[in-house]
Specification:
7 strands; alpha+beta; about 20% helix; four-stranded antiparallel sheet; about 20% strand; globular; three-stranded antiparallel sheet
Length: about 180
């Protein structure tokens, strides 16, 4: 029996711009962003700790998606939005294959602008479920947008996971549960 794992960090992917034909070969990662997590843009780690931001964010966003879309989200579920980015920089597009509500205004994604990536030197197409998920942090060395969530809870989503259950994550981490 084989176990399928995340691609190693060293794997590089080749893809072309659909407009210019320019070929890129880069290490790709998935960047995750729970709804409301950009609130951390207004702070520095020296101004607010990860746990302080967690409490503020969780209190405000824990039930917001359910209140707005009870047909899509259960209480405590927060949508997670996904982006494809290159480790070296220069690529940032919405990730393909996101499970978003039908009325969500996302008309373009990575595959709108680029060809389907293949593994460098091979014909193996990318399996988006195996692309590494970027670690986010909120500390004296790194202040990522929404990094307070992973820093406070130790949690990060699986590739393309459509939502997080805020109460479940907080309970498992033993921290403030809204």
């Amino acid at each position: 029996m084989s176990i399928v794992k995340t691609y190693p960090d060293s794997v590089r992917w080749t893809f072309r711009s659909k407009v210019s034909g320019y070929e890129n070969t880069q290490r790709l990662v998935l960047h995750w962003e729970p709804s409301g997590s950009p609130m951390s843009d207004d702070y520095l780690p020296s101004e607010a700790s990860a746990s302080e931001l967690w409490e503020k964010w969780a209190s405000e966003y824990c039930n917001q998606a359910h209140q707005q879309r009870p047909d899509v989200y259960a209480p405590g579920q927060v949508p997670v939005y996904w982006f494809v980015t290159a480790v070296e920089g220069g690529t940032w597009e919405a990730a393909p294959h996101q499970n978003l509500p039908a009325d969500f205004p996302l008309f373009e994604d990575f595959l709108t602008h680029f060809t389907h990536p293949t593994r460098e030197g091979r014909v193996e197409p990318i399996n988006w479920n195996r692309v590494p998920v970027r670690d986010l942090a909120w500390n004296g060395r790194q202040a990522d947008k929404g990094g307070f969530i992973q820093e406070a809870t130790g949690w990060k989503p699986a590739p393309l996971q459509p939502f997080m259950d805020v109460r479940q994550v907080a309970s498992a981490a033993g921290i403030y549960v809204p």
